[in-house]
Sequence to fold (166 residues):
Amino acid sequence: MTTPVGLVWAEASGGVIGADGGMPWHVPEDLAHFKSLTMGEPVVMGRRTWESFPDRFRPLPGRRNIVVTRRSDWSADGAERASSLAEALELARATAPDRVWVIGGGALFREAMAIADRLEVTELDLVVDGDTFAPDRSAWDIADEGAWATSRTGIRYRFLRLTRPA
Fold:
């Protein structure tokens, strides 16, 4: 059996997931949720997502960090390079994890939607400008819809788990 693939992201109104190489919000509860989902499992990300993390969080601790980039000479301490999503998944699955998590960015999410079985989305009740957007998830089924809560930073949010329609 193939190791399942999940996608995890936070999105503001209009599907915004990023702006200028980062997230235009701070919701500590979302970061804790992300950590609890991905801890101990391989995470696959694009190079710009890797570069968006503050130095002190690179590599993401407790997870195998696999970075997809077309730059053949790219390397970073604590990260493995893959030239494609397929190669990244092959690397990730070599250790027989329970799940592989794709964590960004937008282009990698769109490509991985075809093979994912689960989406973990933090919806933010927030309107912000952005330049990176979540893939369309309208055809997916909501398996778990958390209640709206308010972050200690004042932003309303809720966690959604979506599954591929039968």
User: Anything to note?
Assistant: The chain has one domain: 5-163. The helical segments are 28-38, 47-52, 85-93, 106-112. The chain has a mean pLDDT of 96. The first strand starts at residue 5 and ends at 11.
